[in-house]
């Protein structure tokens, strides 16, 4: 069957999955965790084959590292599945209950989105995490993993899918696609797929966003800023900028651009430079910065670049408004922080910066679903609709309105025979 | 300045509007209400000119009716603005407040979406309603009204915009576009516009959805169903189907397709037919229906058609599952109802039908923001992301995460020096 037809059938079957109870979905997840452990030998052997093929193909070391799926990683993802079971069911949550008139009750209740397409990177962990997140939230999933992980993903998917079906989930609850050319077909399934979540490189996510009518959740860029206000505590600011830059550079919530108030730059920059030199971080500065510390000249392009590396570009600003305007213009609306001891200044910054996360005196690296206490994370959204910032299970649900009447008709309200008498019941 | 550049500037200025307090926005709305009344003579004269031009151009009577903007209509929209002021501020609502660790506080707070583009029909009332809804929710608006209402819309926009600016709103809080070719330019402003709301014909909304990268909120089709279960109360069902079909035919929440359980069809259909005959409603039926009552044969195409007219197509089904499958396949996921006295059957239907509204024993015509008690309505969304069903002010907001720290860095949590200690503060 063609992918498009399979996706359409999945859309129809998605309501069957949506109707499964919390107990049924959690029971399937528990059996999946056990089945993954039971399939350990096969999974590790499949990963050995993928690793061997990747090494022979001369794949880069960082990709090889992400591709490796050993016993520790298996145990980690299985623990993840067991934690997921404990998370509160995101479905069936009553968000509104209102009597519109005598005997006419309106209820707004959360339900799954339907069919979600996820395209992810070469980490086999992602296959387990994403398929189980979708199952927990009652969504059907079409999964496309990185081609380097073909063998590992295949056995992981088979184990998860077979177990889910044995546990009573519909056969069409999840579908794996493997061929790269199927991505193009997937992007055309706007009648059947409700949401696409692409994970991977900036260019890849951008490509997906530009080539489908399906709503896309995710982020392409992650150009995060820290603004060091004139009322900053210099020690705190040095510590935080260093953490945001160096704690893990290859991630979207690492800081890329630094804006420093001109009145504090002469004190702050040398302190930061000293810390950066210890850690081999390259500082790129505008002329005003280079008048204070010795560093590489920063070009305009630097301020539009997501380095994902031990590089930080810095410029001075005359006041907080210049900082805010710069962030709103050059940033990616992901996460931006102000370093200041002045609460009013912080409030002003947080109000006017147009980003999913606006922080005072803490590292941009906190922008993450686990650190926000969401348990599982789907990804980070820099879009403003549906879900913004780190997205947990709540981002995988929508709602429907249920209305219970007893013969109620609109004509009676139009004619004035009856009147609405709104009364919230919760 | 080109529309694209103006939209980009509006995006930057949108944060200034977002920072206005509830009092400031409501004050602007109060002044706008007064200014509209004060500009009465000019507004009515402009509408006279539009009406005259439309009549000369031979515009159809229903369009002329919608185009007319007399003193009564002006008073109605001004009352609407005054009601809007009383509605609770959708901004600054704290949705989550959590201590992640000592001194590290995460707050999730509602805020405006940013820049919203609205393309609407020839009713001049829409200009007032939409511009004030956007202002109330702190969003900048780019407004394109129907070309027939050019003069009326121009004076309405000028009055509203000038008053808003005098009341302290940024000059770029709203922008009117008039030329039809500007719609094409608008659709290309995906860097600046966060959301598009097209209102109008099915074909027009579909065109917008297919020709922009900007997220679109709205509905193209409105193919609503009523399923008459074998456990239906026939009197109630006749009354409700009649209301849903005839109370106002030219709307998206009118019923278009009727599904009748085979066991009740012989009793139900004649009763419905008698009522329809009184009201000159054309019934189109499948063979099984025509074996019971005399009516026009229904084709497959009928079940995919939004009539917006005094026509209803009907078919029998063998059981509730056939009804559900039909609705999920042919419906537009708008609003679908079951007529049944059996609560379990109703629950099953409501669970499995994939629509924004699922009703028991009441008319589909209730699917409307005012009737849901939302006060103002932006429109009805058949999309599943962000907002679904009738959309009130809440559909015009998003949220941001604010985090307050005191030097907190991620390295301390990664190394285990500190541990997260999630505690909800609300």
* N-to-C span of chain A: 48 Å
* CATH homologous group name of the largest domain in chain A: Aldehyde Dehydrogenase, Chain A, domain 1
Number of helices of chain A: 15
CATH topology title of the largest domain in chain A = Aldehyde Dehydrogenase, Chain A, domain 1
Can you name the CATH architecture of the largest domain in chain A? 3-Layer(aba) Sandwich
Structural class of chain A: alpha/beta
**Which two protein chains have the largest interface (Cβ within 8 Å of the partner's Cβ), and how many residues from each?**
A-B, 79 and 79 residues
Instruction: Give helix % range of chain A.
Output: 40-55%
Largest sheet of chain A: 7 strands, parallel
CATH class of the largest domain in chain A: Alpha Beta
Mean pLDDT of chain A: 95
Give the spatial strand order of the biggest sheet of chain A: 10-9-11-8-7-12-13
So what's the overall shape of chain A? globular
- The share of residues in extended strands of chain A comes to 15-25%
Radius of gyration of chain A, Cα only, in angstroms? 25 Å
Uncertain stretches of 5 or more adjacent residues of chain A: none
The total number of structural domains of chain A is 2
**Total beta strands of chain A:** 17
Q: What's the quaternary structure here?
A: homodimer
């Amino acid at each position: 069957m063609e992918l498009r037809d399979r996706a359409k059938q999945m859309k129809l079957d998605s309501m069957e999955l949506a109707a499964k109870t919390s107990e049924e979905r959690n029971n399937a997840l528990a059996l999946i965790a056990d089945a993954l452990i039971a399939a350990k030998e096969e999974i590790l052997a499949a990963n050995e084959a993928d690793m061997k093929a990747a090494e022979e193909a001369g794949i880069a070391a960082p990709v090889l590292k992400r591709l490796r799926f050993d016993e520790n990683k298996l145990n980690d993802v299985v623990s993840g599945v067991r934690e997921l079971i404990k998370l509160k069911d995101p479905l069936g949550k009553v968000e509104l209950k209102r009597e519109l008139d005598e005997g006419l009750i309106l209820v707004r209740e959360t339900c799954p989105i339907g069919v979600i397409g996820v395209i992810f990177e070469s980490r086999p962990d992602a296959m387990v995490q994403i398929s189980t997140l979708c199952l927990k939230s009652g969504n059907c999933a079409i999964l496309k993993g990185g081609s380097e992980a073909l063998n590992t993903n295949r056995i992981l998917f088979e184990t998860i899918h077979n177990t889910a079906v044995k546990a009573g989930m519909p056969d069409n609850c999840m579908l794996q696609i493997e061929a790269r050319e199927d991505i193009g077909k997937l992007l055309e399934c706007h009648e059947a797929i409700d949401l696409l979540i692409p994970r991977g490189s900036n260019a890849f996510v951008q490509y997906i966003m530009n080539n489908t009518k399906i709503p896309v959740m995710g982020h392409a860029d992650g150009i995060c800023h820290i603004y060091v206000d004139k009322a900053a505590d210099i020690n705190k600011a040095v510590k935080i900028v260093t953490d945001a830059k160096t704690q893990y550079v290859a991630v979207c919530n690492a800081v890329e651009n630094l804006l420093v108030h001109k009145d504090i730059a002469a004190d702050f920059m040398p302190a930061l430079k000293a810390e950066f030199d210890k850690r081999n971080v390259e500082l790129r500065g505008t002329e005003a910065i280079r008048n204070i510390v010795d560093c590489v000249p920063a070009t305009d392009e630097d301020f539009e670049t997501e380095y994902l590396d031990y590089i930080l570009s810095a410029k001075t600003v005359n006041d907080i408004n210049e900082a805010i305007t710069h962030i709103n213009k050059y940033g990616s609306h992901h996460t931006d922080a102000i370093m200041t001891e002045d609460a009013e200044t912080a409030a002003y910054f947080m109000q006017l910066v147009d980003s999913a996360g606006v922080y005072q005196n803490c590292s941009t690296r906190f922008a993450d679903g686990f650190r926000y206490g969401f348990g599982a994370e789907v990804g980070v959204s820099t879009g403003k609709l549906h879900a913004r910032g780190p997205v947990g299970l709540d981002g995988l649900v929508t709602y429907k309105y249920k209305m219970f009447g007893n013969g109620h008709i609109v004509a009676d309200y139009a004619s004035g025979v009856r009147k609405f008498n709104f009364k919230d019941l919760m």
